[in-house]
Amino acid sequence: MNKKKVLIITYYWPPAGGPGVQRWLKFVKYLPEFNIEPIVYCPSNASYPITDASLADQVNPDLTVIKQHIKEPYKIAQLFSKKSKTISKGIIAEKEKQSLMERLMLFVRGNFFIPDARKNWVKPSVKYLSTYIKDFNIDTIITSGPPHSLHLIGLELQQKLDVTWIADFRDPWTTIGYHKQLKLTSASKIKHKNLEKKVLNNANKIIVTSPSTKVEFEQITTQPIQVITNGYDHEKVTTFGLDKKFTLSHIGSLLSKRNPEVLWKVLRDLINEDSDFASNFQLNLVGAVGKEVLQSIEINDLTNSLNNIGYVSHSEAIMFQKKSQLLLLIEIDSEITKAIIPGKLFEYMVANRPIIALGPIGADVASIIKETNTGQFFNYQDYDALKLTIKQHFEAFKKGDLKTNPIGLQKYSRQQLTKNLAQFINP
């Protein structure tokens, strides 16, 4: 039986690093097992804020990858300010700490590049892919955003060629955390909302990564919506000895808006109250860290316990996850972040180390952690409960008995999730 051809339009592809690339890199890996032949379309010269050359090794050499040139405004912006690179990573300073150049760049990004800085890739992509889709008899396309401008490629191709179009939202659109920081005019806000509505009501099917996003989108569209979360892959089994110190490790970007003041206070107090804790504790931050986060750590006298490692490759990140005594997951304390389920949560779960998670009340993350018995979730007011849990984990660590007993993880494996995707593509 011939495999069904599906064209996947994505901005993030190796050598891109970070969480954005993982989702479709893994789906593409497993789709052929379910009688689907993926074809990937991505930029040839993208300006990725972080790169990881090692991820290219995970791409099947038989996979068809089409690449086309893209104009990247961030490259031009970097000639005027190094801040453009941090903004492209999502690291945006507090309003009162922004320079004039930062404020200007945010205004330009928000109001002149709607829905985002890759909007100028839409027309040339539609022109090129229109011919390609006809030549290779492709009847299904998938667009993955952000950047949400890629959904506009799907919209135009669908209207032009009458293909089946599936829009995959790795994150929400107008309710994503940084959206309010873009200094949008009233007209720009309306334009974003109208584009979002147009995409959601014209896509034949919609995929989201969390139940809360599904609920949000169901207020806008009646099109079929499927929740397919991110997940974990079966990495090569490597045994890492656990850290000798009582390490609490956060892997991934820790942006200033995610600054967990309550956690820093808990750790400060535990260090001041227990000399044994003070001598054994180490905070690992693996990835980009916002300036305000580092300042809070310093204010709480945690600098001597800090190991600020910076960005590492994905394989190194897996190593840190497996070696750490505790894993830290943090989300912004906001109503609109309840829907965010970071991809690293699933890697954390199979690292077999207890998770300490902080986020808003009612977060989707909380239910997954509870369901899988992989850790504890706290809101930003849970000082006493957070302190008690870390203290209990430290006592278990001293006895050599700090462990976790996860249950029901299989449903979050990349292979199972790809099976769910294949059934949604081709019921």
Automatic annotation (TrEMBL):
GO MF terms, alphabetically ordered: glycosyltransferase activity
Keywords: Transferase
SUPFAM superfamilies (UniProt xref): UDP-Glycosyltransferase/glycogen phosphorylase
Domain Glycosyltransferase subfamily 4-like N-terminal, first and last residues per copy: 107-235
Domain of life: Bacteria
Protein name (database record): Glycosyltransferase Family 4
Species annotation: Olleya namhaensis
